[in-house]
Design brief:
Blueprint (H helix, E strand, L loop, with lengths): L2 H27 L6 H20 L3 H21 L8 H25 L5 H28 L6 H21 L2 H7 L2 H25 L1
Helix pairs in contact: 1-2, 1-7, 1-8, 2-3, 3-4, 3-5, 4-5, 5-6, 6-7, 6-8
């Protein structure tokens, strides 16, 4: 196993651990929560898997790791309690820049892969767009609320993006990427269940009140 493969597996371990931490804390709270350790492990995973994606020349995936890494860092700033929400125009500009970075990664992928398959690159691009937009949505919602949290749509985007990226990873035959995306649906479905339960409990409390 090469050093860069080790780095990839370290990233997978970080992402798996963050999912476990988030799931565990959510089970305790009976709702989806975003603990600080989730964002720290996410940032570590993004850095290491970003390096791995760069070494494999999968730039559409690299763009996603870079975009998400920036959002993870912003959420850590929120967790410290010292961050102020960005003005609406600034937040919109940042969102557009993130979308442009993802598009640039997709274009580079098409132009520089030795055996480019338009259909599969489009699958990867759509998956990465959904996968990255979930954290753009989460970041936007957190900016508006001035604290880090997961809106329900976050988990639906996660589930759809994860499924497409897992299909792309299977197409590549890359065990590092496959292992990274395979466990995701379990966590995402469970968080959707917890979110539904929390909403039902809130409605019942309002009716009883």
């Amino acid at each position: 196993m090469t050093a860069i493969q080790v780095l990839g597996w370290v990233g997978n371990a970080a992402f798996f651990s963050r999912s476990f931490v988030q799931w565990w804390e959510s089970e305790r709270e009976k709702r989806s929560v975003a603990p600080t350790m989730f964002w720290r492990l996410s940032l570590l995973g993004s850095l290491t898997l970003g390096a791995y994606a760069f070494s494999r020349h999968t730039h559409v995936l690299l763009a996603g790791y870079v975009i998400n890494g920036l959002i993870y860092a912003r959420n850590l700033w929120f967790q410290r309690g010292t961050a102020r929400p960005l003005p609406g125009r600034v937040a919109t500009l940042v969102a557009l820049l993130l979308a442009a970075a993802l598009a640039a990664g997709a274009i580079y992928e098409l132009q520089h892969r030795e055996d480019p398959s338009l259909a599969w690159v489009l699958v990867a691009c759509l998956g990465q767009a959904l996968w990255s937009s979930r954290f753009v949505l989460q970041w936007w919602a957190s900016e508006r609320a001035a604290h880090s949290h997961f809106p329900r749509l976050f988990w639906w985007l996660s589930l759809a993006g994860n499924a497409l990226l897992l299909a792309y990873a299977l197409h590549l035959g890359d065990l590092v990427f496959i292992a990274g995306f395979a466990p995701g649906p379990l966590v995402q479905v469970r968080n959707l269940m917890l979110g539904r339960g929390a909403e039902a409990a809130a409605r019942k409390a309002r009716q009883d009140g």
